[in-house]
Amino acid sequence: MKDRNLIGVDVGGTKCAITLGRSNGDGIEIIDKEGFATTAVDETIGNIKATVRKVLLRNGLAEKGGADAIGISCGGPLSSEKGVVMSPPNLPGWDNIPIVSILSEEFGAPAALQNDANACALAEWIFGAGKGTKNMVFLTFGTGLGAGLIVDGRLYSGTNDNAGELGHLRLSEYGPVGYGKAGSFEGFCSGGGIRQLGQMKVKEVLMMGGKVSWCPDGDVEKITAKDIAVAAGEGDPLAKEIYAISARMLGKGLSFVIDILNPEMIVIGSIYARNEEMMKPIMQEVIDSEALPLASKVCRVVPAALGESIGDYAALSVAANIKQ
């Protein structure tokens, strides 16, 4: 497979990033990257065009067709089939914007669009922990819980790009709120959900006259998932209990995924990847008791290999997934 020059366009609610990568079929080298603030829709699209042009120019690829493919990663809702962004809550004004045709016509290269979770799934599948697998599930486990599904060697996005919304599954009748639903998978397995669990547990201690070392002033609104992780890593019993609750619910949610999709690998990013040693034994114990043995024994649960750089690879992977 010949080397390809790929452009990745990561459209976020507060900032955008343009990345130039060179793919050789076995991997990808990031050549250049530039970011800018997300502003009004027309201005942002203009800045995307200008920045792509600038990145191509300073790398000797200024001619039309200098990029072999363009991948766009963006929060949903969107239509990957039509290449249209459809009013994401974090992108005001992006109402039915045909971003794929806009960039494809501007730069004379094929372009494709995927939601950010699917783009991250492609990144881990093509270049990261899931490389070489045929059936893989990727979970973000960051601010929220999103997922991307690789089924029979291709990205599966569903009838209208809503496949993989695992965060919306309700795992318990009561619990922290995530994805607008109390007790959801996202409620228990996300930064926001762990923060809520921490607030609830600290309030219980404070109401009984106790103290919590990692919330010394009693202001539970200041608690973060990172605070709890640091305290748990230092052996604090309450913080360890909070992460144990999240790990148990992660095991429960993954048991559903294993039984339904029978993947050979589940790749988990962000918070799990940073706290695997603390969470994996508890998570695995639940999987071993809940999931079908024939399915669970062929499925490995691993941390994302691309780590904090996954955002740099995600949009590039959408470009790399475009057939030559």
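Next protein, fold it too.
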Amino acid sequence: MNITPKEINGNWDVGWALDVHTLSSVPLPDGEFRTERSQLGELLYQVKYRHDKTKISPIAEIAAEFVKGQITIDEHHDLLYPEAIIPIPPSTFRNFQPAIAIAAKIGDILDLPAALYYLIKVKRTPPLKNLAHDESRQEQLKGAFDLQSQNGNFRCVLLFDDIYRSGETLTEATHVLRDRGGVSRVLVLTLTQTRTKL
């Protein structure tokens, strides 16, 4: 599968979105949209909205292969390789949480511990895509995350999310990991990125 990774910048050390989520979205007369997604975007859509768990492994394999090519331990054994993969906690409750399932599978492939519930959401927030301004999203996310335990002892982590929109969620999560968890190096991986900042 072809992907077009793009570096994403924030308060983390380095980050990537593996592809765009949608290529186009055209409104139809009935109020629906005809949406064309990237190949990875389509796989993610099938997992998130069609609950097709058979797409988890192909997505995780693509992500793990990318990580293997980007992150290595250098000759001085500086810690460049993450000690754990940490997913962003879900914003809505579902019986099946796609981002957590995908993060766990990426961890399996990379032989990387998946700290699936280390970062937790402690404050309810409205869907951020419905908030028009960066300031509104930042205010809603302030204090939204905490750590299940202060004893993770992670120096370097791979922070994972399925879709990158404005970066506000990742920014707040990185802040918590550094300030409360003592993490010195945060690497970010998202599967897809929206075409426009929401």
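About the second fold: The mean pLDDT is 86.
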